[in-house]
Amino acid sequence: MLRILKYLSKGEIAQMLVALLSIVGQVWLDLKLPDYMSDITQLVETPGSAMGDIWIAGGKMLLVSLGSVACAIVTGFIAARVGSSFTQRLRSLEFAKVESFGPAEMGHFSTASLITRSTNDITQIQMFITVGLQLIVKSPIMAVWAVMKIAGEGFEWTIATAVAVVVLLAAIAIMMAMVMPKFKTMQTLTDNINLVARENLTGLRVVRAYNAEDYQEAKFTKANKELTDTQLFTNRTMALMMPLMNTVMNGLMLAVYWIGAYLIEAAGLMDKLTVFSNMVVFSNYSVQVIMSFLLMSMVFVLWPRADVSAQRVLEVLDTEPAVRPGHDTTASAATGTAADGPSRGEVEFRDVSFTYPDSREPMLEHISFTAKPGQTVAFIGSTGSGKSTLINLVPRLYDATSGQVLVDGRDVREYDLKALRDRIGYVPQQSVLFRGTVASNISYGDDVSGGDVHGDSDGKADRIRAAADVAQATEFIDRMDDGFDSAVAQGGSNVSGGQKQRISIARAVFRHPEILIFDDSFSALDFRTDREVRDALAREAKGSTKLIVAQRIGTIMNADQIIVLDDGKVVGHGTHKELLDGCEVYQQIAESQLSKAELTA
């Protein structure tokens, strides 16, 4: 928990120092109250005391109380302000860190866990800073100060207070030992319940199609029950704390007055008033001592969950992405220049091998090819042959285990990630749309690169329509109620799979990138639309290097190069005709998809 406080700003630390002074002032004022109460008691018990003296002592007591309230308000205001600003920064840092993660890091942290860490865990930290830090400072100051006040008031009363404190600390230690392991379990179970809920919502259509509602409900009920049982155990255990506090406090008060009665009875006539006054003062101070330990117990309630949450947040913040940015920022699509010459979009693989993290078997072995500027290079092979893995090495979603991936003659690891990815238009296997409009989704990459998500630069509307024309998306977009301004729901749930894929293609084309990557991005298109999109790409993106992963030979048969992969190795490399003549794997794929006339054409 303490390690996460390094993210506090200097301004927040200064505010916390002011809050510390305010807490010290509040404790001092609180501990002055018994003194004035003692004065009032003596004045009331002393015959002939002037009423004005009693009013003066009472007025001082009132002013001290108001001062204590003012200090508490200042402390609470500062704590709330620091807690909010600090956790806002943590959320931003965590979001930025997650954005830098590649697939390897995302595989380590589940999506549900990352959501919990950036919401629930940070809320626990905020609660601790807002409430807990006040208590951590206030309770020991109050305890030490109060003990110093009562130390000379009476040996018997001091012993009684010490016994009460020991009983209290022992009980708190036992309860903490019981619940501490459960707090980490609770956070893990919260991740699990989020995972089950998210899985169910994402796959709702499949769940309904298979009448699996009862099965999913049973999974959720199991996860929910595990979390509930753990929460009940911790809450029931912690619920014992307040009754225990009250019992100890009431027992101590009873002991103070019982001891006081004996001391008053044993005192001389002139000393009885002094002993009685001391008893009143001591009873108030003893309450302050117990209250300080009560505040400490509240810290013990907040600390474990906040500590676990802080560790989980730090686990994200401390994770260094496997893909580290290079330092060459000169190669960007905007400037059109590379570090050592014109920016052209040439892609070369030199003896590239790749093994996934935590895997023993290589996914790719000794891959070599060159895609010249403007060429179309296609990749085909059976499921799991490494096609998607191969093209993911170009935008550095992963880094090659050995060998080199080069863009315009320079290793991609030397490029700044932003500069590299500004040159690439990427259409993933699973099309992703963002909540907004059709237009904002098509211009998404350009808007983000320019730092203006909502801007509308000159000619942008024409560029958006031109990109949609290439992707054969204009027709269905124009049929929508608001055309390009039509709303797109989260995840693109209000458009079909083919429409989603065409908008994704338009988004990649919109940037006029030097390199276009299509990861099985035509699979949801019918054959006619597939052909029209490919023809439009050949016309409008003829200067871009196109890397295409496909399952259908019809999509790639006109490619300049076709690379056939099998079990991570290149087993064929050439044109469609060359591979039909000399590659057995390609022949098998072709025979399963093409007619005899097409095979002999």
From TrEMBL:
Q: Which InterPro entries match?
A: AAA+_ATPase, ABC1_TM_dom, ABC1_TM_sf, ABC_transporter-like_ATP-bd, ABC_transporter-like_CS, P-loop_NTPase, Type_1_exporter
Transmembrane stretches, start-end: 12-29, 61-82, 127-147, 159-179, 244-264, 284-303
Membrane-protein topology: Multi-pass membrane protein
List, for all copies, the residue spans of the domain called ABC transmembrane type-1. 17-305
Q: Which Pfam families match?
A: ABC_membrane, ABC_tran
- GO MF term (any one): ATP binding
What residues does the ABC transporter domain cover?
Answer: 347-592
Q: Which GO terms describe its cellular component?
A: plasma membrane
Under PROSITE patterns, the record lists: ABC_TM1F (PS50929), ABC_TRANSPORTER_1 (PS00211), ABC_TRANSPORTER_2 (PS50893)
Q: Which family does it belong to?
A: Belongs to the ABC transporter superfamily. Siderophore-Fe(3+) uptake transporter (SIUT) (TC 3.A.1.21) family.
The protein's name in its UniProt record: Multidrug ABC transporter ATP-binding protein
Q: Native species of this protein? A: Bifidobacterium leontopitheci
